[in-house]
Amino acid sequence: MVDAQLFPRILDFGLSGGDPRSGHLKGTLQYVAPEQLEPSLPIDDRTDVYALGVILYELLCGRPPYTGSSEEILAGIRRGRPSLPIELSPAVPEGLQAIALKAMEHDPARRYQSAQEMAADLARYLDGRPVLARPSVYTTTLGDRAAAHLEQIAEWLRLRLIHPHEADVLRGAYRALDARDDDWIVESRALTYPQIALYLGAFLLLCGSLFYFAAERWYGAVSGIAQPLLVLGLPFAGLNIAAQWLHRRDHKAVAVAFYLAAVALLPLLLVIVFDETGLLVVPPDTPGQLFQDGSISNRQLQVTTAVAALWGARLALVTRTAALSTVFTLLLGLFGLAVLADFELRAWLIGGRWDLLALHAFPLVVAYAAIGAGAERTHRGWLARPPYQAAAVVLILVLELLALHGRTFAYLGFSLQGFQTRAVSDPLLLDTLAAMTLNGLCFYLVADLLERRGTELQRHAARLLFVIAPFALLQPLSYLVRTNEYSLKWDWIFLIAALSIAMLSHRRQRRAFYYAGVLNTGAALYLITSHRGWFDQPAWAVAVIAVGLAALGLGFALDRRQRLRR
User: Fold this and answer.
1) Residue 73 · residue 67 · CB < 8 Å
2) What whole-number distance in Å separates Cα of residue 502 and Cα of residue 516?
3) E strand or H helix at 175, and its extent?
């Protein structure tokens, strides 16, 4: 109640004075928190915060969040999906709506953890500052309404009202709305100053740790273990403790940034500790080491990357974010390279045996794909997507490296050297470029298979392969023409291939094919002009202009034909 001066007065202390844990199934029904309906769940101060949220909701809307019979009210409380106040009263300020819904979160861990936190957010609103509350009902409501739109898109596609590529674009736009506000800056739907500051801080922390590592390892400016533990170890421990505390109190966006910064410190901290304690250290010029100066041993690399990858995996499972999943995926790849250091990786790099690197790196493609599939089967989409995309990236690198110096055809047991003239400086050039062209075809076929038979998450990797495929098909031919060691007829073959790729964009509605075709058409015209010395020939320029006008006329005719058909 309020007195004559409109000052609030509490008149009913019906449930106060006893053991708060005995408040199950007690109280005025509209203000009962979900945990009061389950005797097995604990009751604490956050239960009162829920009731405060209901009161604020009622003040804003003129009615409680759940109405009707007792059974209907109980069902609404258990479901935890109240209508947005602004739907009931359009004049409700969004800030107050967010505060009320935040206090009424179904999960006590997502509510304000005390009435003081709620009061602080109310003070921000009164001061004209943005409130901190971002209730989960925003995400669930958006998801429900987006799902209805996705069903409509499927219906439009079935009725042929839209093209398949348009359906993909629309679905992609709605998928972007699934991005979580508590994930990292790459996935967020909007940039905010807190995000910018958080990830800038994490990046500067990484830069500083690299400088410190260089000072310790290569300049000898740091000695002993005490200083590294203070400079790197203390921030690592502090960031993890703070992130854990923040995550439990629903400050997940800050917690994820803190975890990322801490993970960035871990490998460098471990390497410095190993060096200062003499653990896993090898003398300079030890055979088989990636770093011959003895600065970092193979075993140190393997242990540090393995520990960091496992730590990243644990944090990914705890936070359920794509941010830590991406970090885990990257660290797993570094661990794979560290393992290859024991298989003469240094000798491969120095000797240019890219084929051996590719063959030994291929298991990483399988590992990434298996991790993605396993995560997807356990309904961890946030964990599955980065490994799927990494599998596509590593597959591209493996096949392209394997093609260098004609090694792909060498492993297959044949060569195209008989089809090139003796004047060619590199006898393996045709084998290399032909293999790279076949790689482009392979990328397209794998992408097509994933798009037709794969899951929604696997199609993310397919899109990357679709973008790479047309460029992988045309760039080898472009390089062959640029060498100027083959017949000039290859200039025209390159031009025809580029135009064909541009026209093929219509069949699969892939803009990457059109862009690759147009860009390489320009490159082919330049090479034709250069190789024949036609820069001073106006007739050639006129011919190209005439073809362009003819293409415009053809486009007009085709458009008119389509209009008549309609």
Assistant:
1) yes
2) 7
3) helix 164-176
* DSSP structural state of residue 209: H
Looking at residue 21, its pLDDT comes to: 54
- Cα 486 from Cα 433, distance rounded (Å): 13
The one-letter amino acid code at 423 reads: A
Q: Which amino acid is at 148?
A: A
CA–CA distances in Å: residue 497 to residues 51, 186, 409, 503 = 69, 37, 23, 10
Dig out the tokens for 313 from the structure.
């995996």
For residues 177 and 135, give the distance between their C-alpha atoms in angstroms, rounded to a whole number.
Answer: 15
Question: What sign results for the dihedral spanned by CA atoms 406, 408, 412, 416?
Answer: negative
pTM, rounded to two decimals: 0.75
What three-state secondary structure class fits 13? coil
285 in helix, strand or coil? coil
User: Phi/psi of residue 554, each to 5°?
Assistant: -65, -40
Distance in angstroms (rounded) separating the CA atoms of residues 383 and 371: 9
Per-residue model confidence (pLDDT) at position 460: 83
According to DSSP, the residues that pair with 8 across neighbouring strands are: 2
| Per-residue tokens: 314 | 């644990």
Q: Report pLDDT for 17.
A: 46
pLDDT confidence of residue 181: 58
Tokens 């990636």 sit at which residue? 290
Closest CA to 172 of 383, 464, 460, 506: 460
Residue 355 and residue 99: Cα distance in Å, rounded? 59
Q: What is the maximum span of the chain, computed from C-alpha positions, in angstroms?
A: 105
Measured CA to CA, the distance from residue 430 to residue 50 in angstroms comes to 72
Task: Kindly state the tokens that stand for 276.
Answer: 């200062």
What span, in angstroms and rounded, lies between the C-alpha atoms of 200 and 133? 23
| CB burial of residue 403 (10 Å; 0-12, 13-18, 19+) | buried
161-to-96, 152, 154, 425, 566 alpha-carbon distances in Å: 42, 11, 10, 56, 13
| Sign of the torsion formed by the C-alpha atoms of 303, 304, 306 and 307 | positive
Q: Residue 545 and residue 543: Cα distance in Å, rounded? A: 5
- Residue whose C-alpha is closest to residue 231's, from 200, 257, 208: 208
Rg (CA), the chain: 31
Q: How many CB atoms lie within 10 A of CB 68?
A: 10
C-alpha to C-alpha distance for 436 and 480, rounded to whole angstroms: 12
DSSP string, 302-349: HHHHHHHHHHHHHHHHHHT-HHHHHHHHHHHHHHHHHHHGGGTHHHHH
- Please name the residues in contact with 73: beta carbons below 8 A apart, sequence gap of 6 or more: 29, 30, 66, 67
Task: Count CA atoms within 13 Å of residue 438 on its CB side.
Answer: 13
pLDDT means per 10 residues, the chain with 566 residues, are 84 53 69 87 88 93 90 90 90 93 90 91 91 84 82 87 80 70 62 80 90 84 86 92 86 86 90 87 87 86 94 91 90 93 90 92 95 91 91 95 91 82 77 91 92 86 90 90 82 91 78 89 92 89 92 88 78
CB atoms inside a 10 Å sphere around CB 414: 9
Q: Which amino acid is at 146?
A: A
Two tokens, residue 513: 């094919």
